[in-house]
Write a structure and sequence with these properties.
It is a single chain. By secondary structure, the chain is an alpha/beta fold. Helices cover 63% and strands 7% of the residues. The strands form two sheets. The protein has a four-stranded mixed beta sheet with strand order 3-4-5-6, covered by helices on one side. Pfam families: Sulfate_transp (PF00916). Its main location: membrane. Keywords: Membrane, Transmembrane, Transmembrane helix. This is SulP family inorganic anion transporter.
């Protein structure tokens, strides 16, 4: 035992993480439009491959609710057979970013964009899974899902099966929320698993008319990408999806790593190595034709809270998933789909950062606006373009705020007019600078002092030189410009 001083703690934690992972793996797969077993395959790879690799010792990887929207769009556009090659190429891209030491730069992404991304994903998941809970086909677009909800509820009212399904989905959410109020001993079983077990027992005991998970068997769903799938790489359309998978999976994993680091006192995350670990896992998932993986904060926090001390807990959770998928695949066929939809509605709700939005609005209205625009863009367009819109807004806002400029004009009535510029003179402030300078009289000598500027970009320098050359009247001294002696 001296070689493994934390074996018992890690073993116990691995059981908890396994119990949390099972309903999430299955639910994410079903919501993504792929066989349920593929979610388990990704969870197994997250434990047995990514779990072994260095990076973040306590965070756990697997299929994530945050990628369901992107995966569903990809499967709808390119088909399940192309999913493997998309995930494979995204994994190779993550490996390249890790080896090029780009992982640490993900910490530089604006928090408002990240929160906006999670908020937008959460809204689309909630809207889509309400249809799934009712057993109704959901519209494809995010706006269509939200706009169609009143009609979907109206249709459900006329169908006993839809009403029973919706009631089961709502009951699942209620169990998850209320489970935290049960005695501590009961909470050894995670709320999501308890909700699925109760829904399954209820469906069997009362012969409820609800759809259940379709089972194909573990080996039946593993389909390595073939030549046709690789042929898709010749078209430009699939590359946008690959880049989106790589960037968003990386961002979610590395932000999760930062959150997990705040939960424990153990070794800190090595971001570039964690990027390599995620890339290695996604490369294997791609070769197996499975779902993409990310580090998942729900599983990771469960791992830490259960007392895990080393990476052994996450590796063991992969072993338990493999044994479950191999020995009890028929158990999946008993799980009602509305229960899985309820789990994902709850997961989507948890993604919406209500407290952060309120806090940002009070302290930084500009950041709150970026968050809202990012979320709305994801719902209105798609996830990748929505995130790009949010990033562009964040860059513009930062550029505007960092280009503070103060212009001071001193006119003593006689002698030269003195103009002092201080701060940062960038092209964003050029109109203001020129308006101030061009308003000065042309029949007086002018001295412009630039020594207070921290930064003078090329556009401003050129514009100042042109203004100085043409401003003074022919019989007046030329404009004198003084720069800092550096």
């Amino acid at each position: 035992m001296s070689k493994f001083p934390y074996l018992w703690q890690d073993f116990a934690a691995s059981i908890v993480v396994f119990l949390v992972a099972v309903p999430l793996c299955v639910g994410v797969a079903v919501a993504s439009g792929v066989p349920a077993e593929l979610g388990l395959v990704t969870g197994i790879v997250g434990g047995l491959v990514t779990g072994f690799l260095p990076g973040s010792s306590l965070q756990v990887s697997g299929p994530a609710a945050g990628l369901t929207v992107l995966v569903f769009e990809a499967v709808s556009e390119f088909g399940v057979t192309a999913l493997g090659v998309i995930v494979l190429m995204a994994g190779l891209l993550q490996l390249a970013m890790g080896f090029l030491r780009i992982g640490r730069w993900f910490r530089a992404i604006a928090v408002s964009v990240v929160e906006g991304m999670l908020c937008g994903i959460g809204l689309v998941i909630i809207a889509g899974q309400i249809y799934a809970a009712a057993g109704i086909k959901a519209p494809e677009s995010g706006i269509g899902k939200i706009a169609g909800l009143p009609g979907a509820f109206a249709d459900a009212l006329g169908s006993t099966k839809a009403l029973v399904s919706l009631a089961m989905g709502a009951a699942t959410i209620a169990v998850i929320v209320l489970w935290k109020k049960t005695p501590k001993k009961a909470q050894v079983v995670p709320g999501a698993l308890a909700a699925v077990l109760l829904a399954t027992v209820a469906a069997l005991a009362f012969s409820l008319p609800v759809d259940t998970v379709e089972v194909e068997g573990l080996l039946g769903v593993i389909q390595p990408p073939g030549a046709d799938a690789f042929g898709e790489l010749a078209g430009p359309a699939i590359w946008g999806t690959i880049i989106a998978f790589a960037l968003i999976a990386s961002a979610e994993s590395l932000f999760s790593a930062g959150a997990v680091d705040r939960l424990h006192d153990g070794p800190r995350t090595q971001y570039d190595k964690e990027m390599i670990a995620q890339g290695g896992g996604n490369t294997v998932c791609g070769l197996l034709g499975a779902l993409p993986m990310t580090a998942v904060i729900v599983r990771s926090s469960a791992n830490v809270n259960a007392g895990a001390k080393t990476k052994a807990s996450r590796v063991l959770h992969g072993v338990w998933l493999l044994l479950f998928a191999a020995a009890l695949p028929s158990a999946l066929a008993l799980i009602p789909l509305p229960a899985l939809a309820g789990i994902l509605v709850h997961a989507g709700w948890k993604l919406i950062p209500f407290r952060q939005i309120a806090g940002l609005w009070r302290a930084h209205k500009g950041e709150a606006l970026i968050l809202v625009v990012t979320a709305v863009s994801i719902v209105a367009v798609n996830m990748f373009e929505g995130v790009l819109i949010g990033l562009a807004l964040a860059v513009i806002k930062t550029a505007w705020e960092t280009s503070h400029l103060k212009t001071e004009v001193i006119d003593k009535g006689s002698g030269p007019i003195q103009v002092y510029l201080s701060g940062n003179a960038t092209f964003l402030r050029l109109p203001k600078i020129l308006d101030s300078l061009e308003a000065l009289p042309q029949d007086r000598p002018i001295e412009v002092d630039l020594s207070g500027l921290h930064h003078l970009d090329h556009a401003c320098r050129t514009a100042l030189e042109n203004w100085a050359q043409r401003h003074s009247a022919p019989d007046i001294e030329p404009v004198k410009v003084t720069t800092a002696n550096r």
